[in-house]
Amino acid sequence: MATLPSPPSDLTPEQLYLGHLRHIDAAARHSARRRHFSADETDDFVSTVRLKLLDNGYEVIRKFQGKSSFRTFLTTVVERLMLDYQNHLWGKWRPSAEAERLGHAAMRLEMHQVRDGLTFDEACEIMLMNERVEISRRELEAIAERLPVRNPPRRILGEEELAERPADGETPAESALSREAAQRKREILELLEQALARLPAEDRLIARMRGDFQVVRIAKVLGLDQKPLYRRIDRILKTLRTDLVDHGVTADEIAEILAFPESDEEEGS
Amino acid sequence: MAGHETQLSGHSLGPCPADEEIAAFVDGLLSGADRARLVAHLADCKACYQVFSGVVRFEEDAAGSGKVGRVVPFPLDRREERETGGGKRRGRSSATWWQVAAAAVLAIGIGLAGYRTLFAPPPLTVAGLTGPLLSRPEAAQNLYSLARPRGTSSSRPADRFAVEGPSFMVGVLLVDLQVASRTEDPRTAAAERLAAIGSQIGRMRNMQKLAALYQQDSREARASTLFASNLAAHMARREAELDRSLDRQALAFGKWGEACRLAAVIRSRETFASRSNRLFLAQALRWQAAKLEERRAHPRPEGLDLEAEGTSAVLATLGRIEAHWGSGDPAPRYADLRQDFGELIDHYDR
Known about the structure:
The complex is a heterodimer. Helices cover 68% and strands 0% of the residues of chain A. Chain A has 14 helices and no strands.
């Protein structure tokens, strides 16, 4: 873990900014890459970050008090700016909980399909050709199957647009089944949130982190011993399973919801 | 910069922690009640968790690649390094054997100036360069003249400096555009410079569309609509676009040259003490020396190698700049530097 001291006090905010510009850009690009931004969006975000740091005579940098390493502080600022930037980019539209769970490619696909009213093929074309999202069409199909059915914003289509619009691939019966499955998924996720809320705070954080990070990383960040953490995570998952079963969720449904990557099983266990 | 965001569970959330607290948590520097409060917040606040997990992910990837987010160490001046006994500095560890070897080769070729470029300086931005200039009205009164006499196209071959020259001049004008906001008539000053940027870009092949954008910007600046929508933010985006479209090195060279010329006019010690600016001087020397070497390796008939002549002149001016810049003690020779940087720009502005 980085424990660099605060920067020397005789450096001006400008010197700090310039000296860390490479780090700032790298953090911004990294954040954009994780969200599958297009090259233009990435450049725009990097410029936005630079501008925000320059605003009001380096106000953000001047507020740094030395409680953390300056480098980590800057990374945190960049990540916070990314949230603002996404709000600016996507407006009031919000992805579904399932799309968020599946990651940024899913959020983007959902945005194109639901917010912009594009067909799956059109959304794919934009993501693969224009946005150069590093994901295959097959993976996008798999994601699309898991996304809940959401009503697009109401808009009136012209006759020409309607004539050119391809027929939806699903029959009415299939569509009803999809809606039902999506509704069930929402219910289970809501129950999971409630079950999580009943855990102690640190367990809640561990459970959330387990969806994003390997155990070794969680242990390092939270300053916990790795071996006992495996057992602790098992206990947390068991508690969540029991809670969900008590609320009528089946074992298969739980397996899908609580399917974490298992690539970092405890060594020797 | 923290805000109030979406709650994840039924727990009541306090105000979001400052970004520095989240950073301290990631660094493992929080304990006791502070740590417990942050853990509880991160467990329930969707926005803060996203920020936190993003930082952890970045740190993880940075540790894995060893490349992401490398920070240029401060201070880099070799004299200061010797004085502080910092021969084995933390930031140095990232230099691999081939970087050291490359630096040694350069040192043999062009002397100590090249050796200083072992670590490339951070990219120069207009906003960063003009920081020390904006508070001084004399800078705004001494912008590079757009009215000076220039040679006609018949005085030099059409392709000479076809990309490098215009890119350099766009850099000069970008700096002036920023400083122009402090003139008595900022709208006119900005409109003139935007039009001049358009003209310079128009000198390059296949750049007419981009040139037209700047002519449009110029009209909007005159009509004040561009000012209403924030010229500075607009130009920061355009700067990134120009970085991609023009000769990046020449563009940076032009920005640096004009910022230093104005800094010499206002006698800004800050600009000439800046590590980034000193490093850029070394980089420019190396760049021009390499260009000259290349031209000499592929000579053209005497009298026809105008590019080599131009590069020799630029290199000679940079040599004078290095001599007049000094090491900060005694102070830079501002009057000479003002002259030198003026000459440097004149080499490109024909």
